[in-house]
Amino acid sequence: MSEPIWKKSASVAVPEAVMRFLAGQDVVLDRELLPFDIRASRAHARGLARIGLLSDEQAGAIGRELDALSEAFAAGEFVLDDRFEDGHSAIEAWLTARLGETGKRIHAGRSRNDQVAVALRLYLLDRLDRLRDIALAIAEVALARAEREADVALPGHTHLQQAMPSSLGLWWAGHAEAFVDDADLAVRIREHLNASPLGTASGFGVNLALDRDGVAEELDFDRLVVNPQNAQAQRGKAELRALDALSAATGDLRRLAWDLSLFASQEFGFVTVPAAFCTGSSIMPNKHNPDAVELLRALHATVVGARAELESVLSLPSGYQRDLQDTKPPVLRAFARGLEGLALLPGLLGGLSWNVERMASAIRPAQYATDRANELVAEGLSFRDAYRRVGDELDALEARSPADSLAARVSLGGCGRLGLERIRARADALRPAAGD
Predict the structure, then answer these.
(1) Distance CA 102, CA 430 (A)
(2) Is residue 64 domain-shared with residue 131, that is, in the same domain?
């Protein structure tokens, strides 16, 4: 590892084992954050030029070298490895090696706390954009299948017991609306987090007239985190809010995966999961296991675990504490794994094959009881009297059909009036405008 940028005296030797412990996983984790750190450094340099701490030529040279670093990193020509303490020191080392004294000026008016706070904020905004896009892609597949399979009968269940006749249209629309809700939450939380902490330094501000507003605008932030103490307190808290959005989506994914796990079992036999998402058994030749569905079902645990780690770390007083370094691993892990799994869902859902005959034959006459009770209510009977009468006359429901039951369910959102256009309109409103 190169000499740390905070070392003040050549006479003080920091043991290698201590340095490794202090650095932790930073140099590996910062590979995710380095592009955002570079972007913020470029804006910071231009801000320094606007207040006279860098000349325009120096700021231009720093910008060109940061572009070169970004390109080298993307191409794999520059590797963030254990030569460096973290991504921040790597940026400064690159600039100093190429620009000498000019490169050393990049850290004026900022702290590594600044760098990680703004890089994490930019990272979270980017990942929330991805979450929104993936959730809308899932909803789109579900809506398209709801339209095509609106009238396909599916036994409805409560308490894992047969309840009323339902439809694939209603099932698909329910999951579609859930993921539209998740996209909406990602957008709202993104708006909440869209504030720049850059320029608050170590939590006390600096005696330089930094152009915080101009730098924030250049980085596409809507506003500032104004108070330096609050900027430090946002570490971990901002990540928790972003995980709220991810957790909502993986929670809905878990429920959907549970449905598919049950429906794909031989006992139900309602659906066949695409072979590309299944594996076999190493000992049982007959097995065809929907492993991808089961691992998607487990994905929520990664997010819940990340939240637990963050909550545990954040039992801290005001001001920066080195404990905050340990907020990075769980949030980066959760978003990497969570978005990877969610991105598989459109392909999985698009390839499902339903056993229409099996689903229709699973609907028993007793499932029409609520339909009949509501018919009696429409004829003037009180619901409680209708409820009791139908309960005593279940055998009279034998002649009913799933198709008639679904068509008659005309309350908005019900099987006969799915309201897909309303769900789609919400989804369309959440998509970014062209060019955004």
Answers:
(1) 44
(2) no
Higher pLDDT, 257 or 26: 257
List the catalytic residue out of 159, 282, 315, 353: 159
Name residue 62's amino acid: I
pLDDT above 90: residue 88: no
Based on the fold, state whether residues 88 and 177 are members of the same structural domain: no
Backbone phi, psi, residue 109, to 5°: 80, 10
Q: Does 281 qualify as catalytic in the annotation?
A: yes
Q: Domain for residue 326, yes or no?
A: yes
Marked catalytic residue, from 2, 55, 265, 281: 281
Instruction: Using the structure block, give the residue that is written with the tokens 């060019």.
Output: 435
**306 in the same domain as 176:** yes
206 within some domain: no
The token pair at 39 is 């972007």
Please give the Cα distance from 2 to 87 (Å, whole number): 12
pTM higher than 0.85: yes
**What region does 199 belong to: left with phi over 0, alpha with psi -120 to 50, or beta?**
left
Q: How many CA atoms lie within 13 A of 100 on its CB side?
A: 1
Residues facing 224 on adjacent strands: 196
85 — pLDDT class (breaks 50, 70, 90): confident
Is the CB of residue 242 less than 8 Å from the CB of residue 214?
no
What are the two backbone dihedrals, phi and then psi, of residue 288, each rounded to the nearest 5 degrees?
A: -135, 90
Q: In the structure, what pLDDT confidence band is assigned to residue 257 with cuts at 50, 70 and 90?
A: very high
Q: Please name the residues in contact with 55: beta carbons below 8 A apart, sequence gap of 6 or more.
A: 49
Asked if 222 and 247 count as a contact pair (C-beta separation under 8 A), the reply is no
The radius of gyration of the chain from alpha carbons, rounded to an integer in Å, stands at 28
Which two tokens mark 198? Answer: 């850059």
Is there a single domain that holds both residue 276 and residue 348? yes
What three-state secondary structure class fits 24? Answer: coil
Owning domain of residue 99: 16-108
- The question of whether 353 is a catalytic residue gets the answer no
User: What residues have CB less than 8 Å from 222, skipping those under 6 apart?
Assistant: 191, 194, 195
Query: Where residue 6 falls among pLDDT bands split at 50, 70, 90?
Result: very low
* Domain termination site, one of 293, 328, 361: 361
- The closest of 346, 349, 343, 331 to 247, measured between CA atoms, is 331
The whole-chain average pLDDT of the chain stands at 92
- Of 330, 361, 392, the residue that ends a domain is 361
